[in-house]
Design brief:
Blueprint (H helix, E strand, L loop, with lengths): L3 E5 L5 H12 L5 E3 L10 H14 L17 E9 L2 E2 L1 H9 L6 E8 L5 H13 L3 E9 L5 H15 L1
Parallel strand pairs: 1-2, 1-3, 3-5, 5-6
Antiparallel strand pairs: 3-4
């Protein structure tokens, strides 16, 4: 069986829910939650201003989390919230620092209301440039408000990861 790792960033718990649900369904113990040295605001206008600005400008924050050695894994699941139609800045930092040569990548994105297409496309482009093959992607809207629908979507996604 292929070794799988789930790497994700979650600001408000939405992606936490997806990553943990997926890990449980595929019996994956390799789960890495990225954290930044300087935390992003979680409330109010500053949350949107800081996160959105960093995503738009391509800022890649310093990560507090020790990056995993991806050479041990065949499959990499990358899960991110959508920030200003882009991947979260911490996910961009992770992608920039890692080698994806020969890896199969699976992408999960969650938005508060808009489409995640451009976020998925951005991750696809970046990891492909670094040698990965993107196998599947899925996106969710208002994730924590639709947990049953999300679990059903994850069930479909699991068949692609396994």
């Amino acid at each position: 069986m292929s070794q799988t790792i789930i790497v994700y960033y979650s600001l408000e718990g939405n992606i936490d829910f997806v990553a943990k649900t997926l890990a449980e369904k595929i019996s994956c113990s390799n789960v890495v939650r990225l954290e930044t040295v300087k935390a992003y605001p979680t409330k109010g206008l500053f949350k949107f201003l800081h996160g959105g600005k960093d995503a738009i400008k391509g800022f890649k924050p310093e990560l507090k989390t020790e990056l995993p050695d991806l050479s041990k894994f065949d499959n990499i699941v990358i899960a991110t919230p959508v920030w200003a139609s882009r991947p979260s800045a911490p996910i961009s930092s992770f992608i920039e620092k890692c080698d994806f040569t020969g890896k199969k990548v699976f992408i999960i994105a969650s938005s508060a209301g808009g489409s995640a297409e451009s976020t998925i496309e951005a991750i696809n482009n970046e990891v492909t440039k670094k040698g990965a093959t993107v196998v599947a992607s899925v996106s969710f809207v208002n994730l924590l408000k639709q947990q049953d629908k999300v679990k059903s979507g994850i069930d479909e996604f699991v068949s692609k990861v396994n």
